Sequence to fold (360 residues):
Amino acid sequence: MAKKLAILTSGGDCAGLNAVLRAAVIHAHHLGWEVIGIRHGTGGLLTTPLDYMVLTPQDVEGPILRQGGTFLGTTNHGNPFAYPMPDGTKIDRTGEIIAAFRSLGVEGLIGVGGDGSHKILHRIATQGGIPYVAIPKTIDNDVGATENAIGFATAVDVATEALDRLQPTAASHDRVMILEVMGRDAGHIALTSGIAGGADIILLPEIPYTLAGVAQKIKDVKKSGRNFSLVVVAEAVKKETGEHASIIDSTTGRERYGGIGHYLAEMITQHTGAETRFMVLGHVQRGGQPGAQDRVLATAFGVHAVDLVVAGVFDRMVVWRNRAVVDVPVLEAIEHYRCVDPSDALVHTARGMGIYLGNV
Ligand code: F6P
Fold:
């Protein structure tokens, strides 16, 4: 009988998840292993009957590599250590997950997730003695151990394309255009797409700014003879008064970032008189086709993760370093949250281009 491994996707979706599932299935089959795909993160281990699919290479042929989302489904709420029940109480359901996992008769579990998911999955794996291998994915690119996580490059491409589309309309109407991008508490998407898309101002959660500084830059651009300005702002940038622009999600009760672009638009008009528009890019950064870079990264991660399971090497995260996939202890990988370092090479690049980044 063939040996089996299980795989699941967890946390917010992003482009490249289907590519990693495809790589794991194809490579495992080449090595004579079977793959079980658990649906909806750990959610598939909390239902009766359990919600999983046996995955064959035929299941991942053709369009799968190119498709956004995850065909297994995912979730970014419902922490099993404090699982929300219909009556409003929260209970620990990790024992059920561990028992369900054992019933699958697999040799190991590959989890594809961001830092939050890996913290939870690593804790469950440690508690239940589950042989676990982690693959990092997140458009936020904030998993410390890897230079790139699956989904980041595509999100940057999408944000850059948005700037390419905003620039001609800004120029046609003599306007300031603001693009609000995701990234949670890290400014990687804003910084990278802002440089790629020719922004005049890039505001990051990691670097303080002033409205006077923003207004001055817009006036300077106008004085130079250019009739439009482009601004990129990361969703977690605070208002000048110090608070986040955010929304309380009525279904989960959680706070979500959103609205800083609208605030800035009003402030810029007040401070400069410029006609200003804003756009919140939102979840299009996560959906859609993965770019070539994410497909390659996902494929390399999927192959390496399967190799680890087959070799019986667990409690490792596969990461991208110096043009190669390597692996590090999961704990080490999730300990370090990576936001933009103000001394980062790309910060230097942006400043070298005269982009206003804040006051530090
Ligand atoms: O972590 C990925 C991410 O897209 C963040 O950039 C964003 O803040 C958050 O998830 C949005 O979450 P949701 O899908 O719950 O709206």
User: Anything to note?
Assistant: The radius of gyration is 22 Å. Residues 35 and 238 are 45 Å apart (CA to CA).
